[in-house]
Write a structure and sequence with these properties.
mainly beta; eight-stranded antiparallel beta sheet; 9 helices
């Protein structure tokens, strides 16, 4: 077979990558550096921290061009994402000692590599004394932090590498232990990464994983926790991402932890030979192999790409090559052995294998990290054949050494290389060499890796490593967990039911039959990310007063439940997270869900249109709007704004600087999963008054900009963002500090399975108006660094720091976002929101509608948005009442479910020519007031009757406020 196509031999393509979450975080123990809490005066008094600059001694653009993966062309050069720059830094000798006011002495050193998109440090010797000393590494803006690294991180002298951090400068900070001894930190290289973007994050400081959300061009990728991956949850726990260093650069591949017949859990990792060499010789030195990093459990927690990848921090560093079978003339197999055992507490799976079957049973599956993204799954349920890897230019693998087929769901991309092919029997049968994203994939056969090329050298076979017990005669081996240690299961069926006064949490109890008999199960309750309590029951109730601080307050709360498994006296060895102590318990992933208390829409106007059978009455969905504010809701009287100025932003590198400056923030769209049709309704922002407000020329106008995932776009010749843009001007009567509300002309329906960016755009020049930042919202635990710029027609997100002349703001921008439950809601510029919070919460679920005609109920239990009234007339006044599934949660403040039957209702919301307002349950109303939308009281009636005459009021929109003994009720009306 002669196949000419684009090779995916290499780890990852030239597309921009992102570094997210703890790559070698197994060696770090958390905490906050003293430099974070020290005053600026303390640090400045010690003088400037010394800076070691390591400059790239190569032309970055030429290097990228020479190594890039060009679609549409046949090429077999190794693709890279960066290069190692040699240096010689002795931290103990070159760091600056700083004595803090507390008397503590810390040592700091800055390492800079100008122009890098991300950096990592490589050490010839990394050793921290066993006296409690702690090393931290972080970015100058403190947006990402690594450490603390302690003695347990790397107990012996030798090579090491830390995780990548975004940006071109890092700060190393060391706090000596009780003996005052200094560490041995000999930095021999700087990993200069020239492709990195999007600072995603969680509610903790973290670095950036490579490639999150970068895959899926042009075929959408399938997350491992989508329904397609449900039957592969064991196998996925053995799949890992490889971060590789050598003289040529820094690259990414996929790999797989393998079981062996000795069942001794030797850390054998299967991948592809081309990940280490594109020649017939393995030339990567051990000094580089000691720094290779293997990342486990890097995946999205849900099927939605809108969620952020889990930061479980499960990695090991360093390896040795056991088997090397080059893709030229052989089968492209690579077997590595990690320098250290994979800690038991990582709970990884040692995958089984089948080296005997001629063809694997289908459907076959690939589990991999395409473009360095979080773990994906691809499925092939079509025919699989045997063929030969052939470059088309005379270079080829061995005959019949590869499986050849096309995936029917998902695809492979750069970064997938080395990933395993699983048969329908859940056994590894091959490793990915390459192929075309929309064509055949080629997997080197394990049957050939086994002993087909075996000579006298142990490097040309895998049998002696995977089958040491039977001397290579075993045909297959099942996968296994080490000592039965599976990932700790989180809670399932998590539900929150909210009444007017309480929130009731419930979840499915952990099945005790699935865990050892001696284990005990506890449930840890979190509120808005903070630990609240630990219980043994699978139910928890909290009052509204405790949740919100006031029993009459409206607001949203995010509850979380985490399972803590007490090992009943047994222990697990420290994995590098527990400062040398054995584990006596373990925690599952935290499962979160939002809840809220607020006054939802209870009545709506309906429209009657004449028909052949009376009138057809129709109405909108209730406009239960919710507002999301990433910086929360500081006291408006104390909230201060900071000007946000920037010169013209020029994109670094070979990319064209856009003519629009589109600044967006990332919203947790996965919170909308399960909602029928969540919709962006409006955007609120505060323009910067200290720079020029745009004039009316189109080129100077603001835009609201939205990006929700990607799709193929023939106009730009590839994948581009799914976007929405709407121009607007700042009102002429606007005053500095005022919020500007922009209701979308066309509500934008959100796909919660895709990532979501929302923000504003302005012309990209030196005097462009921006949006102010909110003072004192730069806490150390920001949910993520905002300021993503959507660049060009493809609407590609880039961190704002990647533009020349731009500075990432330390505070959040003054932007808030309003969401509706559907596109079919009535549009008003003077809307109110039933819920406000930092993250989206579930919308009220409509159970049914009740239809009133001239104040009397004529139908109940309606589930559609229309009703045929055979006896109706267009002159009748129709009103709809909404019945919610959890009605008590949405009642006006202080009103119980029982008292809802006496709730006053004002109708119609659209007055007719008589200008008469009807008040149901008027006997309960003590005072009725009519206000303009700006709060001016234009009418007040004590103890009103059932009919209120509003004929004296001018046309306009009003708020009717009805005060009762049970509480206050409001209703918007229009005359």
């Amino acid at each position: 077979m002669n196949h000419s196509f684009i090779s995916k031999l290499l780890a990852v393509g030239i597309v921009a990558l992102s570094w997210v979450g703890g790559l070698v975080a197994q060696q770090s123990f958390g905490g906050v550096p003293a430099g974070f809490t020290a005053s600026t005066t303390e640090l400045r008094s010690a003088g400037a921290t010394p800076v070691i600059r390591v400059l790239p001694e190569f032309n970055v653009q030429d290097f990228k061009t020479a190594h890039q993966w060009n679609k549409g062309q046949v090429q077999f050069k190794r693709l890279t994402i960066g290069r190692v720059l040699e240096t010689s830094i002795d931290f103990s000798r070159q760091a600056q000692a700083i004595e803090l006011e507390s008397g503590k002495v810390i040592y700091r050193l800055r390492v800079s590599s100008p122009g890098a998109q991300a950096m990592t440090l490589l050490y010839d010797d990394f050793f921290i004394p066993n006296d409690g000393g702690r090393l931290y590494i972080y970015t100058p803006d403190r947006s990402a932090l690594l450490g603390a690294y302690t003695h347990e991180t790397h107990p012996k002298h030798g090579g090491f590498a830390n995780e990548p951090l975004n940006g071109d400068e890092v700060i190393m900070e060391y706090e000596p232990g009780r003996t005052g001894a200094m560490p041995t930190l000999l930095v021999s290289g700087v990993g200069y990464i020239y492709d990195a973007r999007v600072d995603n994050g969680t509610n903790k400081l973290r670095m950036l994983y490579p490639g999150e959300d970068e895959s899926g061009d042009p075929i959408p990728q399938i997350g491992i926790n989508c329904p397609e991956g449900a039957e592969w949850q064991a196998e996925k726990a053995g799949v890992c991402q490889l971060i590789m260093y050598d003289e040529e650069g820094i690259g990414l591949c996929s790999g797989n932890l393998m079981n062996n017949t000795n069942l001794d859990f030797k850390p054998l990792i299967l991948s592809a030979a081309h990940c280490i060499s594109l020649s017939t010789e393995q030339e990567v030195g051990q000094e580089y192999l000691d720094k290779w990093t293997f990342v486990f459990h890097y995946e999205k927690p849900t099927c939605s790409n809108g969620s952020i990848a889990l930061n479980r921090g499960k990695s090991v560093v360093g390896c040795q090559v056991r088997t090397f079978l080059p893709f030229l003339g052989m089968s492209d197999g690579l077997l590595l052995e990690a320098n250290t055992q994979v800690p038991e507490n990582y709970r990884v799976y040692y995958n089984g294998w089948d080296r005997w079957s001629v063809l694997p049973k289908t459907p076959a599956v690939g589990i991999h990290h395409p473009m360095g993204d979080a773990k994906k799954i691809s499925i092939a349920d079509g025919p699989i054949t045997i063929g030969q890897w052939d470059t088309g230019d005379g270079e080829a693998g061995a005959e019949k050494a590869h499986f050849v087929f096309q995936y029917t769901k998902g695809a492979t991309e750069g970064g997938s290389s080395g990933s395993s092919l699983f048969s329908a029997e859940h056994l590894v049968v091959g490793t990915l060499t390459g192929g075309r994203t929309e064509g055949d994939d080629f997997y080197g056969r394990l049957k050939f890796h086994w002993d087909h090329f075996k000579k006298n050298d142990t490097i040309d076979c895998m049998d002696i490593y995977l089958d040491p017990k039977e001397g290579g005669t075993a045909r297959r081996l099942e996968g296994t967990w080490r000592n039965g240690l599976k990932p700790l299961q989180p809670v399932s069926d998590f539900k929150i039911q909210v009444t007017n006064a309480e929130a009731h949490l419930s979840w499915a109890a952990i099945d005790k039959n699935t865990i050892p008999a001696e284990w005990k199960v506890f449930y840890r309750i979190y509120r808005n990310g903070a630990f609240v309590t630990e219980i043994t029951d699978n139910k928890y109730t909290e009052s509204r007063e405790v949740a919100l601080g006031d029993k009459a307050r409206e607001g949203s709360v995010v509850y979380g439940v985490q399972v803590r498994y007490d090992y009943g006296g047994k222990t697990l060895p420290d994995d590098g997270h527990n400062e040398g102590a054995a584990y006596t318990s373990g925690e599952s992933d935290l499962i979160e869900q939002g809840a809220f208390w607020g006054n939802a829409v209870h009545t709506m106007p309906a429209t009657a249109k004449a028909s052949s059978n009376g009138v057809l009455v129709t109405w909108h969905d209730p406009a239960n709007l919710q507002e999301v504010s990433l910086f929360g809701y500081p006291d408006p009287d104390k909230m201060e704004f900071i000007p946000y100025k920037h010169p013209k932003a020029e994109l670094k590198g070979r990319y064209t600087t856009p003519n629009r400056y589109n600044l967006t923030v990332r919203i947790a769209s996965d919170r909308f999963v399960g909602e029928p049709s969540p919709t962006l309704y409006a955007v609120r922002l505060v323009p910067d008054s200290l720079i020029n407000v745009p004039d009316t020329k189109d080129a100077q106008r603001y835009t609201i900009i939205v990006r929700n995932g990607t799709e193929r776009n023939d106009k730009v010749g590839g994948i581009a963002g799914i976007t929405y843009e709407q121009m607007f001007n700042v009102p002429q009567d606007w005053k500095p500090g005022e919020w500007v509300t922009v209701v979308l002309d066309k509500p934008f329906r959100i796909n919660p399975m895709n990532d979501l960016f929302i923000g504003y755009g302005i012309t990209n020049n030196d005097n462009a108006a921006g949006v102010v930042c909110v003072k004192n919202t730069n806490d150390a635990l920001r949910p993520y660094v905002d300021a993503f710029l959507l660049s060009g027609q493809r609407a590609i997100p880039y961190p704002e720091s990647k533009y020349k002349g731009s500075t990432v703001p330390e505070e959040y921008h003054a932007m808030r976002f309003v969401f509706a439950p559907s596109e079919n809601v009535e549009k008003h510029s003077d809307f109110t929101c039933f819920a406000k919070g930092k993250v989206p919460v579930p919308f009220p679920k409509v159970k049914s509608y009740k239809l009133l005609k001239n104040g009397k109920v004529i139908a109940e239990g309606i589930t559609a948005n229309e009703y045929q009234d055979a006896t109706g007339n267009t002159t009748d006044s129709y009103t709809v009442e909404i019945v919610y599934e959890d009605g008590g949660a949405y009642a006006p403040v202080g009103v119980s479910e029982v008292e809802r039957s006496l709730e006053p209702v004002a109708y119609p919301t659209q007055l007719d020519a008589t200008a008469q307002l009807y008040v149901e349950n008027s006997a309960e109303v003590l005072t009725l007031r009519v206000l303009t939308v700006d709060g001016t009281n234009v009418m007040q009636i004590d103890q009103p009757g059932r009919v209120v005459d509003l004929s004296t009021l001018p046309a306009g929109r009003y708020v009717v406020v009805m005060q009762t003994a049970a509480g206050t009720f409001t209703q918007y009306i229009t005359k």
